[in-house]
């Protein structure tokens, strides 16, 4: 078992912005749920507003790169930065921060 595989112990769901348009042609503001993925999650401090930040490490793929939000343990997190690991291109690391008031993703 590789080092990455043994570190991926949490399940996260990826969310992508839905490109559906409203009646006036503007963005409808909907989110589309992507697949669940195995991830490594660790704390990364707090935002100025006191919300916890996390680093979420996943196996890199085109689908992962398209994600804009992550749901983990029932909370919704915005992806603030995505960065590939220079030592292991198989990994991508997201810096995420909790979205206030959002828990299920419907409000996302």
Q: How would you characterize the overall build of this protein?
A:
The protein is mainly β and 108 residues long. The protein has a single domain, classed as Thrombin, subunit H (Beta Barrel), CATH 2.40.10.270. Helices cover 9% and strands 54% of the residues. The chain has 2 helices and 6 strands, in the order H-E-E-E-H-E-E-E. The chain has a 6-stranded antiparallel beta barrel. The chain is globular. 17% of the residues are buried.
Write the layout of secondary structure elements.
Layout: H1 3-7, E1 10-17, E2 31-46, E3 52-59, H2 62-66, E4 69-72, E5 75-85, E6 88-98
Antiparallel strand pairs: 1-2, 1-4, 2-3, 3-6, 4-5, 5-6
Order of helices and strands: HEEEHEEE
On the 0-100 scale, what is the average pLDDT?
82
* CATH class wording: Mainly Beta
The counted number of beta strands is: 6
Tally of domains: 1
Roughly how much helix do the residues carry, as a percent range? under 10%
User: How are the strands of the biggest sheet laid out side by side?
Assistant: 1-2-3-6-5-4
Shape: globular
CATH homologous superfamily annotation: Bacteriophage SPP1 head-tail adaptor protein
Largest sheet geometry? 6 strands, antiparallel, barrel
Return the CATH topology.
Answer: Thrombin, subunit H
The total count of helices amounts to 2
Structural class: mainly beta
Judging by the overall fold, what is the CATH architecture?
Answer: Beta Barrel
* Low-pLDDT segments, ≥5 res: 104-108
Rg, Å, rounded:
15 Å
Proportion of beta-strand residues: over 45%
- Distance from N terminus to C terminus (CA atoms, Å) equals 36 Å
Organism: Sphingomonas morindae
Protein name: Head-tail adaptor protein
């Amino acid at each position: 078992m590789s080092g990455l595989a043994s570190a991926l112990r949490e399940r996260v769901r990826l969310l992508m912005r839905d490109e559906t348009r409203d009646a006036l042609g503007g963005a409808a503001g909907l989110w589309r749920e992507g697949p669940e993925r195995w991830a490594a999650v660790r704390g990364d401090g707090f935002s100025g507003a006191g919300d916890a930040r996390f680093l979420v490490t996943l196996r890199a793929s085109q689908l992962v790169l398209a994600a804009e939000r992550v749901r983990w343990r029932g909370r919704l997190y915005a992806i603030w930065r995505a960065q590939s690991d220079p030592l292991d291109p198989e990994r991508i690391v997201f810096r995420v921060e909790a979205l206030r008031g959002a828990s299920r993703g419907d409000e996302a």
